[in-house]
From TrEMBL:
Protein name: Glycogen operon protein
UniProt-listed CDD domains: AmyAc_Glg_debranch, E_set_GDE_Isoamylase_N
SMART domains to which the protein is assigned, alphabetical: Aamy
Tagged with keyword Transport: no
The organism of origin for this protein: Thiocapsa rosea
InterPro entries per record: GH, GH13_cat_dom, GlgX_Isoamylase_N_E_set, Glyco_hydro_13_N, Glyco_hydro_b, Glycogen_debranch_GlgX, Ig-like_fold, Ig_E-set
Domain Glycosyl hydrolase family 13 catalytic: 135-569
Protein family: Belongs to the glycosyl hydrolase 13 family.
Pfam families: Alpha-amylase, CBM_48
SUPFAM superfamilies linked to this entry: (Trans)glycosidases (SSF51445), E set domains (SSF81296), Glycosyl hydrolase domain (SSF51011)
Keywords noted in UniProt: Glycosidase, Hydrolase
Length: 692
C-alpha cells in the first residue's frame, strides 16, 4: 500500500471498533480520561512502524467519552493500533495510561499476534514494534442459509473439546493440524459418537505467553486459552490464515450445523490477559483501567482479584456490561454460535463494590435479551474468591456446571459410603437445587471430568496430582480430586487393576448417561486419554494434552461403550425428561415415573451409613417406551437385587458394566416377578422391559 495522507471526517460514535464501508473506515473507541489520541496505521502485520499516524481532535472527534474518526479511502486489510495519552491520579482514580503503548482495539474482530512480546508490554514505554494489532476487514461471508440451531438442553449431550488440541497430534491425519479447518475433517467422528453439541474451550483471541516465568522458561505456553484479550475476534493461532480467522471459524460453525451439531463457546468474561500490577498493557489498561477492572477502594493502583488471575473484569459497570452483551450478540448474530459457557461466572455476579448481586445487570441482561433467548447460557457457578453459587445462580434460564454432582459421583463410584440418598437426588436431576425456584432438570449440567482436573482414566489411576512438568513444583492444580487409583499409583501392567480401572470408567459414564439433567463429556475420555496424572495441563501444548487418535484403536472397547451409552440415552426419552420426576404415574402409564429400591424392592437405604447400593425403576414417557430398571452396586462384594414384577413385559439385561462389551447388542432375557439378579461388585446393571 502506497504511503499517503488520507482525508478524514469526524466519524460516528455509536459503532465502536473499525467499520469498513465502500468509502473508507470509521474508527471509534471509548476512553474517559484520554486527552490525546492517535490512530496508528500499518501496511502489514509485520511492519515495525506505522506508515501513518492520525491525530484525533477532541473538539471534532469526541462525543462524551467516545473518540471517533472516519478515514476516507482507507481499504480493508490495513492493520491498526491506538495511542492514548492522559493524566490522572492513579491512586485516586485508577487510570493507567501509558502514552507510548500501542493499544489493541477491544472491539477488533480480526487480530494478529505474530509480533507480540508480553515482556515488553509489561514494561513502561514504547512497544509499537511488538504489539498485537487489529485488522480492518470487510464482511462478505456467505452463510448459505445457515442459522443457529436450537436443540433443547434436555436433549443435549455436550462434548467439551479444545479446538486446537483435538487435531494437533501427529496421529490426527488432517491437512492442517490445530486449525478450525482440521476440526471440520473430524466432524464424522463427532457424528458417529452421537454428541449434540461441542463446547469449545476458549477460541476468543488469547495470549499464549501468559504463563508464570518458570513455566515460560521451560518453553511452555498458555494452551487452554483462559487469557482473553479480544472478545470479538477468533484466536489467530487456530486459523490457517490469521487474516481469515473469522471466516475460518464460520466455516467450522456452518459445517457443524450441517451435521446437526450445535456450538457452545467457553467465554472468559471474568478476567483478561492483562493480569495485575505487573501484567502487560494490551488494551483495557491503557484505555480505561478505572472502568474495566475492579480496583481496590483505598488505593486504586491495586486490583481486586476474585479470579486468581491478577484482575477481575468490572462486569456490572454500564459501559462494560454493554461491551460484554454486544460481544455475545456478535457471536450469535454474526458467528451463529448456539450458546455460551461462562468461566468463573460467579465473578460476573459481583457488583462494582465486589459484593455478590442477585440482580447483577450483566447476568439479567444476558438472561432477558430477546436476541439471546434461544442461546444456551451455562455458568461455572463459582469464582476463585469463594463465591459458590451452584443451585443459587441468579435467574431461571442459566444452566450450571453442577459441581455437586461431579463431587458426589466421584465419591460414590470410588466406594465412599452412606450417600445413596444424595446420589438418588443427583441422578433425578438435582431437584433440591433447582425445583423450588421454578427451574428444570436441564439447569443441571452433569459431568464427571472436564478440562480442569484429571482425565477419566487418570481419575481411576491416580490418588495424587503429578504436575511437576508445569514448572511450579507441583503447587498448582487441585489437591482434592476425589480419585482412586484402584491399588497402584499410575501406570501398571497388572491385568486385574487394569480391568478394575476400565470397569470404574464405564461406571462413571453409565451413571452420567443415566442421570436426569444434561450430560457433558470431556474430549478424550471416550478413548481413555491419560495426562500422566497432571490435573492442570493449562500450559501443555504438546502430546500430553492433545487428542491421540491412536487411542481410538487401542481403547476401542471404551469408545464403543461411550457411543453406545449416548445412543441408549437418546433411545430412552425417560432419561432426559423436561420436568422433574414425581413418583406418580403420568401420561396414562400404570407405573410411577420413578420408584426407588435397595437390594429389596421399595426399600432404598436412605439412612444406612454403610450403604453403597441403589436401584430405581423408570417408567417410559409413553406406553411404547420400555421401562428401565437400574441397579448400582459400588461395594466390594456382589449383591442380589430383587427385580420388580412387570405386567405384559419381560426384563432383559441391556447394560452390565462388569462385562466387556458392557452394552448387549441383543439383550439377555432375565427372570421377572419375584426373582433376584446378581450384580457384581463395583458395577452397574440396567434391565430393559420388553414386550412378551
Amino acid at each position: 500500500m502506497a504511503k499517503a495522507r488520507y482525508s478524514v471526517q469526524p466519524g460516528n460514535w455509536d459503532n465502536a471498533g473499525a467499520r469498513a464501508t465502500d468509502n473508507g473506515v470509521n474508527f471509534c473507541i471509548f476512553s474517559r480520561y484520554a486527552e490525546d489520541i492517535q490512530l496508528l496505521l500499518f501496511e502489514t502485520s509485520a511492519s515495525p512502524e506505522p506508515y501513518e499516524i492520525i491525530a484525533l481532535d477532541p473538539q471534532v472527534n469526541r462525543t462524551f467519552f467516545f473518540w471517533h474518526i472516519f478515514v476516507e479511502g482507507l481499504g480493508e486489510g490495513v492493520f491498526y493500533n491506538w495511542r492514548i495519552r492522559g493524566t490522572c491520579d492513579t491512586r485516586e482514580i485508577g487510570c493507567r495510561m501509558d502514552g507510548e503503548k500501542a493499544l489493541l482495539d477491544p472491539w477488533a474482530v480480526t487480530v494478529d499476534d505474530r509480533l507480540w512480546n508480553r515482556e515488553v508490554a509489561c514494561r513502561p514505554g514504547d512497544n509499537v514494534a511488538t504489539a498485537i494489532r487489529a485488522q480492518v476487514v470487510h464482511d462478505r461471508y456467505d452463510w448459505e442459509g445457515d442459522t443457529p440451531l436450537y436443540i433443547p438442553l434436555n436433549a443435549a449431550v455436550i462434548y467439551e473439546m479444545h479446538a486446537g488440541g483435538f487435531t494437533r497430534h501427529p496421529s490426527s491425519g488432517v491437512a492442517h493440524p490445530g486449525t478450525f479447518g482440521a476440526v471440520i475433517e473430524k466432524i464424522p467422528y463427532l457424528q458417529d459418537l452421537g454428541i449434540t453439541h461441542v463446547e469449545l474451550m476458549p477460541i476468543m483471541a488469547f495470549d499464549p505467553q501468559d504463563v508464570p516465568p518458570k513455566t515460560a522458561a521451560m518453553g511452555l505456553e498458555n494452551y487452554w486459552g483462559y487469557s482473553t484479550h479480544s472478545f470479538f475476534a477468533p484466536h489467530p493461532g487456530f486459523a490457517l490464515d490469521p487474516s481469515r480467522a473469522r471466516d475460518e471459524f464460520r466455516d467450522l460453525v456452518k459445517a457443524l450445523h450441517r451435521a446437526g451439531i450445535g456450538v457452545i463457546l467457553d467465554v472468559v468474561f471474568n478476567h483478561t490477559a492483562e493480569g495485575g500490577n505487573s501484567g502487560p498493557t494490551i488494551s483495557f489498561k491503557g484505555i480505561g483501567n478505572e472502568v474495566f477492572y475492579h480496583l481496590d477502594f483505598s488505593d486504586r493502583r491495586l486490583y481486586r482479584d476474585y479470579t486468581g488471575c491478577g484482575n477481575t473484569v468490572n462486569c456490572n459497570h454500564p459501559i462494560v456490561t454493554r461491551f460484554l452483551i454486544d460481544a455475545l450478540l456478535y457471536w450469535v448474530r454474526q458467528m451463529h454460535v448456539d450458546g455460551f459457557r461462562f468461566d468463573l461466572a460467579s465473578a460476573l455476579a459481583r457488583g462494582e463494590d465486589g459484593n455478590p448481586q442477585y440482580h447483577a445487570p450483566i447476568l439479567w441482561a444476558t438472561e432477558l435479551s430477546p436476541a439471546l433467548g434461544r442461546s444456551h447460557i451455562i455458568a461455572e457457578a463459582w469464582d476463585a474468591a469463594g463465591l459458590y453459587q451452584v443451585g443459587d445462580f441468579p435467574g431461571f434460564r442459566w444452566a450450571e456446571w453442577n459441581g455437586r454432582y461431579r463431587d458426589l459421583m466421584r465419591s460414590f463410584v470410588k466406594g465412599d459410603t452412606g450417600m445413596v440418598a444424595e446420589v438418588a437426588t443427583r441422578m433425578a436431576g438435582s431437584s433440591d437445587l433447582y425445583q423450588s425456584r421454578g427451574r428444570l432438570p436441564s439447569n443441571s449440567i452433569n459431568f464427571i471430568t472436564c478440562h480442569d482436573g484429571f482425565t477419566l482414566w487418570d481419575l481411576v489411576s491416580y490418588n495424587r496430582k503429578h504436575n511437576e512438568a508445569n514448572g511450579e513444583d507441583n503447587r498448582d492444580g487441585h489437591n482434592d480430586n476425589l480419585s482412586w487409583n484402584c491399588g497402584v499409583e499410575g501406570p501398571t501392567d497388572d491385568p486385574a487393576i487394569l480391568a478394575l480401572r476400565r470397569r470404574q470408567a464405564r461406571n462413571f459414564i453409565a451413571v452420567l448417561m443415566l442421570s436426569q439433567g444434561v450430560p457433558m463429556l470431556r474430549s478424550g475420555d471416550e478413548v481413555l486419554q491419560s495426562k500422566q496424572g497432571n490435573n492442570n495441563s493449562y500450559c501443555q501444548n504438546n502430546a500430553l494434552s492433545w487428542f491421540d487418535w491412536t487411542l481410538l484403536e487401542d481403547n476401542c472397547g471404551m469408545h464403543d461403550f461411550v457411543r453406545g451409552m449416548i445412543a441408549f440415552r437418546q433411545r430412552h426419552p425417560t432419561l432426559r425428561r423436561s420436568r422433574f420426576l414425581t413418583g406418580e404415574p403420568a401420561n396414562g402409564q400404570t407405573l410411577p415415573d420413578i420408584t426407588w429400591h435397595g437390594v429389596g424392592l421399595d426399600s432404598p437405604e436412605w439412612d444406612n451409613p454403610a450403604a453403597q447400593s441403589l436401584a430405581l425403576t423408570l417408567a417410559g414417557i409413553t406406553a411404547e417406551e420400555p421401562p428401565l430398571h437400574i441397579m448400582i452396586n459400588m461395594g466390594k462384594a456382589p449383591l442380589e437385587f430383587a427385580v420388580p414384577p412387570l405386567a405384559g413385559r419381560s426384563w432383559h439385561v441391556a447394560i452390565d458394566t462388569d462385562r466387556e462389551p458392557a452394552i448387549l447388542e441383543h439383550p439377555d432375557p432375565c427372570p421377572t416377578s419375584g426373582s433376584r439378579v446378581r450384580v457384581a461388585q463395583r458395577s452397574l446393571m440396567v434391565l430393559e422391559g420388553r414386550a412378551v
